[in-house]
Amino acid sequence: MKKTILSITLTALIALMASGCAVSNNQNSSTNASQNTPGKKPIIIQGAMDAETQKLVSELKDSEKISYGGWTFWKGKIDDYPVVVSKTEIGMTNAAAATTLAIEKFNPRAIINQGTSGGHDPSLHKLDIVIGKKSVNFGAFRSEHGDLGKGIKPENWIPMTIEVNTKGEIKEYKEFQGNEELIKIANSVKDTYKSGKIVEGVIGSADEWNRELDRIKWLNTKYGTSTEEMETASAAQVSKAYDVPFLGIRILSNSEVHNEEYDKTSGDNCQDYVLTVVKELIKQSK
């Protein structure tokens, strides 16, 4: 069976969109927020937690808070261009739901998923930033048959592809590519970041929090992961289904590989850099 849980979740979420959702400010739930700025599709910036979103929210001019179900969005402007900050909440299903809502309600020109993560690549340290050349769901795998009593051997599990329906055609993806234009723009401003280095890499996503060094090494070897978190690949999958340009940007808040504990400045550092990327994107759009 090739379908993953995320493939099924996406189908359920599309059905949910059709049934309508509640809005906290009493707007009609079917209102497309992008219609408020004709000709300008907004940029969506996602973060899972307050620590990954609130600095961005503070940068919005004329901001308006909107809620759909359990997911919160702040609509406003940066440099006179429409931007929506989305608090996805933590986890793959939350990220898929928030991304589906963002696309259906705001009709964005691009989505940037950003925030904190744990390091996998030994060459990276906390406060380094990974521009997601690729994102991969490392929670999608299968195992070969094993007789009862023979034990569990996760190191032998086989990565699976993700099925995505794009414009009526089912395609299989082992990973999701970051949008080339967005990667180029992110690289063009990386010299502005002074708290660590910025590299292109692979962002790994799953509803997991791995601290076993052998497991981290296995993921880095098997999937080429630079870092791990719980949202990017899920948001990328939904964006692919809708054909919306997408990029993941993740800062290392900690690294088990180097025994580096959580750095409380990491969320703000990532938001500062993403804000610079977004302003450059806006500048090139004018």
UniProtKB/TrEMBL annotation:
Keywords assigned by UniProt, alphabetized: Signal
CDD domains the UniProt entry points to: MTAN
Residues crossing the lipid bilayer are none
**Domain Nucleoside phosphorylase: residue ranges:** 42-280
> For this UniProt entry, which residues form the secretion signal?
1-24
The entry lists its GO molecular-function terms as: adenosylhomocysteine nucleosidase activity; methylthioadenosine nucleosidase activity
| Any Pfam family | PNP_UDP_1
Q: Would I find Cytoplasm among this entry's keywords?
A: no
Q: Which InterPro entries match?
A: Nucleoside_phosphorylase_d, Nucleoside_phosphorylase_sf
State the superkingdom.
Answer: Bacteria
What biological-process GO terms show up in the record? Answer: L-methionine salvage from S-adenosylmethionine; nucleoside metabolic process
Record SUPFAM superfamilies: Purine and uridine phosphorylases
Q: Determine if Secreted is one of this entry's keywords.
A: no
GO cellular component terms, alphabetically, are:
cytosol
- Protein known as: Adenosylhomocysteine nucleosidase
Give the organism the record lists: Clostridium amylolyticum
